[in-house]
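Box 3.1 — From sequence to structure: Trk system potassium uptake protein TrkA
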Amino acid sequence: MKKQFIVIGLGRFGSSLVHTLVQNGHEVLAVDKNEQLVQDISGVATHAVQADCTDEGVLKELGARNFTHAIVAIGDDLQASILATLLLKELHIPKITAKAKNEMHGQVLIKIGADHIVYPERDMAARLGNQLSSDNLIDY
Ligand code: ATP
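Predicted structure (token representation):
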């Protein structure tokens, strides 16, 4: 089933996510405050917009409340990550996934209403560790 995603933050994580969601047939609104990153993804995403997502009015203008799933892919700027997550929650988006840099960041995001937290480096290392430990692994 086709889903509607809004992805905020188009760094390595956010932009890779946009590629995968689009490849899987979903509609994706990609947003970043950095114009170059928006231009880079514009041929891939369903829509790509340059905007500051810590501004409530901007999120409303983007029609953020119409999306069933939002992904906050901002890691370094804690304030922006927290504020964007809070505003999306206030818009009653059914599902919010947020990227966190560390456990403390993730706990704050959960407290303010994120439904799911991803820790890209930690999660990928765990996955690789499990793959490397697997008995079935002949060559990596
Ligand atoms: P990655 O590790 O995924 O490459 P990164 O190191 O590029 O991420 P992050 O701090 O995680 O950097 O930020 C991801 C993106 O979020 C950046 O491209 C940044 O421009 C964007 N971003 C930060 N604040 C905002 C904001 N208020 N509104 C929209 N986009 C933002």
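Summary of the box: The helical segments are 12-23, 35-41, 56-61, 78-90, 103-111, 120-133.
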